[in-house]
Specification:
By secondary structure, this protein is of the alpha/beta class. Helices cover 26% and strands 29% of the residues. The chain is built from three helices and 15 strands.
Length: 164
């Protein structure tokens, strides 16, 4: 089941990279950075991706992915729901045709919520740190090396006393 979550995470990241053209398409796919997405009760939307923000679905949409934010579903999702670094709340009227995956967040599911795919919850702060900070470790080490090299060159050279 974790294997499936990894593929869903990879697909979400590729979706964010490949679809910058659909930044604010109301009836189509939506990709937002820092601005929450809300699909009203009588609205239809395509796939929704939100980085650093939250998604609220009361209408109908395709896949839903939030990175660093939460997802609240009280409508119909015709695909998968994935939250990385945030929680998922499935309300009384929630219907998800695909999988529900939360990594580093909490899953809250109403007893009447319908999920036709697999449900996977991988929580814990250590997991979130591993996802976001471990890939940054080489960059941090390079910056630390540069700072160390600059500071080393600023030290005054010792002078020899008594030599001409």
């Amino acid at each position: 089941m974790l294997h499936r979550a990894q593929w869903l995470l990879l697909a979400a990241l590729l979706f964010v990279i490949v679809t910058p053209r659909a930044l604010h398409a109301r009836d189509g796919d939506q990709v937002h950075f820092g601005k929450s997405i809300t699909v009203g009760e009588d609205e239809n939307a395509g796939d929704l991706v939100c980085v650093g923000c939250s998604i609220r679905v009361e209408g109908t949409c395709g896949d839903v992915v939030a990175i660093g934010g939460s997802i609240m579903v009280d409508g119909t999702v015709k695909g998968d729901v994935a939250a990385i670094g945030g929680g998922i709340l499935l309300g009384d009227n929630a219907s998800v045709s695909g999988d529900v995956v939360t990594v580093g967040g909490h899953l809250s599911r109403h007893p009447n919520a319908v999920v036709r795919g697999d449900v996977s919850e991988e929580s814990g702060a250590l997991l979130v740190y591993g996802i976001f900070l471990v890939p940054l470790l080489p960059l941090v080490l390079i910056v630390a090396l540069i700072v160390w090299l600059i500071r080393r060159d600023r030290r005054p050279m010792p002078t020899r006393v008594g030599q001409p």
